[in-house]
Structure formats: structure tokens, C-alpha cells
UniProtKB/TrEMBL annotation:
GO terms for molecular function: metal ion binding; peptide deformylase activity. Its EC number is 3.5.1.88. It comes from the Bacteria. Binds 1 Fe(2+) ion. This is Peptide deformylase. The active site is at E131. InterPro entries: Peptide_deformylase (IPR023635), Peptide_deformylase_sf (IPR036821). Its cofactor is Fe(2+). Belongs to the polypeptide deformylase family. Keywords: Hydrolase, Iron, Metal-binding, Protein biosynthesis. Removes the formyl group from the N-terminal Met of newly synthesized proteins. Requires at least a dipeptide for an efficient rate of reaction. N-terminal L-methionine is a prerequisite for activity but the enzyme has broad specificity at other positions.
Length: 171
């Protein structure tokens, strides 16, 4: 089980924009496995490659039964707004209130180079958008809302995955 060293603020790599992946190689597949292991080891629900020192457009998520790798992700659509508390493995011990869309539709490749489109809401949408921000060099602390000592997270249902469709490659 490979674990990667977590980069934490103020590490400058966390502020850099990640580069697209030209092709999935065995070395990058090993990186993805290590990222899942590291995410699990750190009790996270997501991890972006820059957080382990690799400036590639790759992140992993693990919310409920959904465990996916996103390579070269694109955000196709967002809807709604939800305030909730976020934290980050690269900013240990710090949390804050962040407004994010409740729904996201994204397209990416998995670690095997298969394209997929996912529609997600609630926690999974928040996780995808948080990790996508890492690929842009943006941290959740850049998006903090004013603290309200009486803040209660908005009630959302437990449904987080709307659809996941793998796209067939045209030959």
C-alpha cells in the first residue's frame, strides 16, 4: 500500500495550476492507487494530485459507495447553492463555511482512460468541486463566507449520486 506525503499550506505547489494528462501510463495508475490509499489513510473524501506534490489534473473522491478517479475533469454545469462547513487535508485543523453549488455535472476520464459523465449533488458535488479547485490552485479558504456563530448546515437528503455514465469511444 503506497502512501504519498501530504503537502500542506504554505507549500507553493498548492497555488499552482495543474497540467493536463496526455495519456494514462502505468506510472500514473500507480499514482492514482497511492492517492486512494493516502485519501483513505488520512480519512479524507477527496484528494487532488497537487496535494501530494504532482502537478497533474487528477483527483480522487470517495463518498459513500462512490469511489472515482477524475483525470482531466471538466465542469459542464452547476446549479443551486448550499452553505456548508469544509475542511482540507492540506490545511489541517482548519474549517470554514463555504458556499458551493448543490449540483454538478462533470466529464472526466478514469484511471483506465475511460471517459465518463457524472451528475452529483450534495456532499459528492461539494467534494468534486473542492478537488477541482485544487487543480486550479484554489483553496477552500479563498471562498470562506463570514462566520455566523449560530450557523447550522442546510438540510440535504442523503442522495448524492444522480447518474454516472461511461462513454463509449468511437472508433
Amino acid at each position: 500500500m503506497g502512501l504519498r506525503e501530504m503537502r500542506v499550506v504554505p507549500d507553493s505547489i498548492l497555488r499552482k495550476k495543474a497540467k493536463p494528462v496526455a495519456e494514462m501510463t502505468p506510472r500514473l495508475q500507480t499514482l492514482v492507487r497511492d492517492m486512494f490509499n493516502t485519501m483513505d489513510h488520512e480519512d479524507g473524501v477527496g484528494l487532488a494530485a497537487p496535494q501530494v506534490g504532482i502537478l497533474k489534473r487528477i483527483f480522487t473522491v470517495g463518498v459513500g459507495d462512490v469511489r472515482l478517479c477524475f483525470v482531466n475533469p471538466e465542469i459542464l454545469e452547476t446549479k443551486g447553492e448550499v452553505l456548508d462547513i469544509e475542511g482540507c487535508l492540506s490545511i489541517p485543523g482548519e474549517t470554514g463555511i463555504v458556499k458551493r453549488p448543490q449540483y454538478v455535472k462533470a466529464k472526466a476520464m478514469n484511471e483506465n482512460g475511460e471517459e465518463f459523465v457524472i451528475e452529483a449533488q450534495n456532499l459528492l458535488a461539494r467534494c468534486i468541486l473542492h478537488e477541482y479547485d485544487h487543480l486550479e490552485g484554489v483553496l477552500f479558504t479563498d471562498k470562506l463566507e463570514p462566520e455566523d456563530e449560530d450557523f447550522e448546515p442546510e438540510e440535504t437528503d442523503d442522495d448524492y449520486l444522480i447518474s454516472l455514465n461511461f462513454l463509449k469511444k468511437e472508433k
